[in-house]
Structures are given as structure tokens and as C-alpha cells.
Amino acid sequence: MKDTKDIKDISIIDATPEDADFIAWGIMEAVGPELVDQMAGEDGTPEDVHLVFSRLALRDDSQYSYLNTRIALASDGQKAGVCVSYDGALLKELRRSFFEEAGKVFDWRMTPSEVEKLPGETCSEEFYLDTIATRPDYRGKGIAHALIRDAAAKAESKGLPLGLLVADHNSEARRLYEEIGFRPVGRRWFAGEEMTNMRLK
After folding, report:
1. Which among 91, 102, 124, 177 is least buried, having the fewest CB atoms inside 10 angstroms?
2. Residue 61, φ and ψ in degrees, nearest 5
3. What does each C-alpha distance from 34 to 39, 43, 100 come to in angstroms?
4. What is the Cα 55 distance to its own chain's centre?
């Protein structure tokens, strides 16, 4: 993995339950306002979406759990970025809690068998980088690179390549991933959109 940024002043630490709101912010930042609005629907609000993700961050059986999250601290000690990653083999088990919490807030009606049949954004062949987000006032300082390097180390400890999805329209993110060393390996569906699956070799 190439080192293209100066990351010597960035610390990466385990998230705690107290980071739930920051984790929720990072997830919403990563998926973008269109998907947040889609999730909220006509009767919901972004605040409702934040509530769902903050509840998920507090759980230990969620893909968005604080247990799957690392926080980047800038040299001034402030939370500058967040990364959620986990073993892709656990996705189906972990995402049940997503539909459980979303069902409470948005009254979604999906049976366990319907959830089970949904396409997976990852698989057992990779360690999945689900979410990465950097606070706007800390961008351009190597935060994303530091978080990706940290996730890559977690993936290596599991004997798996680090994988992620990138939308076709997100050329800026794709350039970043290619610069770091990610390469496309196929296509996968996420939230009704087909995206490129990339892995760090």
C-alpha cells in the first residue's frame, strides 16, 4: 500500500459507545444526502436516519457497531474521521439489526427471509470497508489514508484483502482508492445501485 500522505500526526483508536453520534454522522456522510433522503422516505427526516445509525452504533451485533469502528484523532486531539469495517462473511448476520432498528423508526415491514434474500454488498472473500468519512475541516491532511491503512492491517490480520464499493459517479473517491492500490474485481449492488467492487491487493 502506497504512502501518499503525511500521516505521522494522526492517531487511530477504537471507538466506544460514546462515539455513537459521530459514527452515525460518518455513515450518513459516506452514503450521501440522496440515500439519507431515500431511507427517510416521505414521512421521515435526516434526524430519524441519524437515530437509526446511532442506535446501531451502540449495539454489538450490528455492522455499524462501535466494535467495528475506528476513529482518527488529529494532532489537536479532535475526532477527525471514522471508519467502519468488518469480515464480509458476517454481513448477513450483522445486517439483521439494521432492518430491526430501521423498522422501529420507519415502520419498515420486511420478514427475516426477505432480508436474507437481499444482495450482499460484500462477501466472505474480503474484509469490507463499509464506511469512511473525514470531517470537512480536516480533509486533505491524510485522515482517509490513515484510516484505510488501519483497515488494511485489520484485513491482513484476518488473512483477507480489504474490499469496498464505489459508485460509478464518484470518480474522486475512485481516484483516491486507485492511488492507494485498490483495483476493480467485479460489480455488486448496494441500495438499488450497481457499484464497482474494488480490493486492495
Report:
1. 124
2. -120, 30
3. 9, 15, 22
4. 15
Rounded to the nearest 5°, which phi and psi values hold at 13?
-130, 160
Output the pLDDT for position 158: 96
Dig out the grid coordinates for 130 from the structure: 463499509
- Kindly report the backbone phi and psi dihedral angles of residue 10, in degrees, each rounded to the nearest multiple of 5, phi listed first: -110, 130
- Residue 92's closest CA among 112, 70, 66, 65? 112
- CA 155 to chain CA mean position, Å: 14
Q: In the prediction, which pLDDT does 166 show?
A: 95
Structural Rg of the chain based on CA atoms: 16
Beta strands in 15-142 (DSSP E): 69-73, 79-87, 127-134
Phi, psi (degrees; rounded to nearest 5) at 180: -75, -25
Looking from the CA of 181 toward its CB, the CA atoms found within 13 Å total 12
pTM above 0.85, yes or no: yes
Question: In 90-170, which ranges are continuous DSSP H helix?
Answer: 91-94, 96-106, 112-116, 143-157
Q: What Cα–Cα distance (Å) separates residue 63 from each residue in 2, 55, 57, 88?
A: 28, 12, 8, 10
> What local confidence, expressed as pLDDT, does residue 4 receive?
40
Q: Which regions in the chain score pLDDT beneath 50?
A: 1-5
